[in-house]
Amino acid sequence: MRKNSKKTEIRTAEGHGAETIIGTGVTFTGEIKSGGDIYIAGEVKGAIESKSAVVVNQGANVEADISARTLLVHGNLKGNVTASLSLEVGETGRLTGGVIAGAVKVAEGGILEGSCKVDSSAEGRVKSATLTQHPKEAAEA
Fold first, then answer.
1. pTM of the model
2. Using CA atoms, how far apart are residues 54 and 70, in angstroms rounded to an integer?
3. CA-CA-CA-CA torsion for 116, 121, 123, 129, nearest 10 degrees?
4. Which of 64, 98, 101, 110 could form a disulfide with 87 if both were Cys (CB 3.0 to 4.6 A apart)?
């Protein structure tokens, strides 16, 4: 964990630094694709795909389908997500939507609403950022 000069806490995956940053007060609508880490402190609507980590920081608002190796949620996230390695919802995090992850951790105070499928074989096969079906609907089909 690092801190910048404005005393805004930047949470990153262990051993990673943010390569793409959507800062506080920034609104982005569209699709983000990155081979590196994506850090979100502002507002994003659309789709996000990373071959590494995505961090939704405390105070951030995201309405997007997300595909990443690791996903850390400390802010508000609404959408279907695939985290091939792990998903962590922190104590200030709120995730609403469908989840497919290699492992899931929800801290005390964190909220996860929706369907959740833990699939430890998911490592290495990150799915498309936009899921065509909600994971629960896909299981029923």
1. 0.75
2. 6
3. -50
4. 101
